[in-house]
Backbone:
């Protein structure tokens, strides 16, 4: 028998290493900071980037649709840092014990193209989605609102409720899901949150007395979670479940009564609630409200609707936030993801020397 020749271990240079945040380390980081503090700080980080909206590259996400779901890439850049997120949406995964949504993301410097952060984004997407909802509600919801309805009690529900508590001071959350086990799960997880949690047996019961109504369902279909007769004046609706063509949650008559606010119209008209409407249906871009260039809530009877589909700038904000929070911690690993030959022109030579 011949002894196998081991490939020599060549230590990577500092230029080859970038921080990687695993799911384990993301959880450690969140608990180190505190989940509600993370949600408040993420809300502020997203709003900060919305205030400099014109600095970002903007394009609808690149989607690959299938019968089972969708796989998407969400890229953007502010001219100095480039970021993207890989994310999927497969509602049928639940039946196989899999997550409906999984994600990871990356930041890189524009000047060199070198990555500077690679991280899980399944947890981070839930956090940034909740933060974005809270940011919108901060500008659009009724004043001193204290009760919210959470219709759809899946993986996002607790994050949404805690963000509204931490950012807006919500005191009560009213839960409903067609799956009673999902509602029981959410109620159990929020039991010690400081929120009054009411489990309801219908969406109509859930929205009674609620100033904020959040819909977050997963089925890829034209659904009617809320009908026009259910929604009274003076509420704010966060519609966050519709996020691809052929998937909606609200009856179109609600949109005829509401003032609708969106992230990026070219994407939302394809993927959001407004895909049901004519091409000239009026919408207001949320960044303009945040900058004081457009009116948000104008009176106590107005219905405001945030037709949220998720946009790359929000993921950029979340990645930027995590990169900053990692400084001075051990909540990451360094991985050698970049080849770094002694001579930048001699990539082949680096490979060959690895077997000498």
Residues:
């Amino acid at each position: 028998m011949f002894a196998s020749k081991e490939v020599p271990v060549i230590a990577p240079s500092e230029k080859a290493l970038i921080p990687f945040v695993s799911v384990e380390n993301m959880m450690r980081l969140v608990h180190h900071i505190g989940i509600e503090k993370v949600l408040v700080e993420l809300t502020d980080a997203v709003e900060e980037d919305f205030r400099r909206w014109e600095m970002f590259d903007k394009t609808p996400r690149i989607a690959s649709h299938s019968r089972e779901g969708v796989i998407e890439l969400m890229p953007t850049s502010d001219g100095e840092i480039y970021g993207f997120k890989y994310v999927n949406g497969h509602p049928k995964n639940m039946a196989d014990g899999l997550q409906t949504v999984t994600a990871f993301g990356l930041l890189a410097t524009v000047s060199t193209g070198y990555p500077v952060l690679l991280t899980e984004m399944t947890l981070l997407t839930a956090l940034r989605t909740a933060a974005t909802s809270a940011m919108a509600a901060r500008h659009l919801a009724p004043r001193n609102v204290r009760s919210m309805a959470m219709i759809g009690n899946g993986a996002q529900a607790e994050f949404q409720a805690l963000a509204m508590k931490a950012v807006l001071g919500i005191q009560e959350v009213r839960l409903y899901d067609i799956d009673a086990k999902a509602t029981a799960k959410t109620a159990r997880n929020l039991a010690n949150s400081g929120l009054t949690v009411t489990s309801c047996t219908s969406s109509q019961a859930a929205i009674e007395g609620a100033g904020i109504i959040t819909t977050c369902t997963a089925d890829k279909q034209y659904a009617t979670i809320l009908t026009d007769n259910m929604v009274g004046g003076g509420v704010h609706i966060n519609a966050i479940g519709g996020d691809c063509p052929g998937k909606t949650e609200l009856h179109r008559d609600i949109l005829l009564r509401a003032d609708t606010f969106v992230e990026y119209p070219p994407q939302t008209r394809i993927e959001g609630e407004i895909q049901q409407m004519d091409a000239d249906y009026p919408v207001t871009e949320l960044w303009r409200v945040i900058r004081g260039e457009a009116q948000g809530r104008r009176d106590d009877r107005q219905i405001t609707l945030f037709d949220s589909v998720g946009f790359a700038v929000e993921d950029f904000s979340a990645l930027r936030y995590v990169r900053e929070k990692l400084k001075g911690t051990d909540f990451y690993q360094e991985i050698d993801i970049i080849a770094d030959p002694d001579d930048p022109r001699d990539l082949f030579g680096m490979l060959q020397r690895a077997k000498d």
Q: What stands out?
A: The chain has a mean pLDDT of 93. The first helix runs from residue 23 to 33. The chain is about 30% helix and 25% strand. The chain has two domains: 14-123+313-353, 132-310.
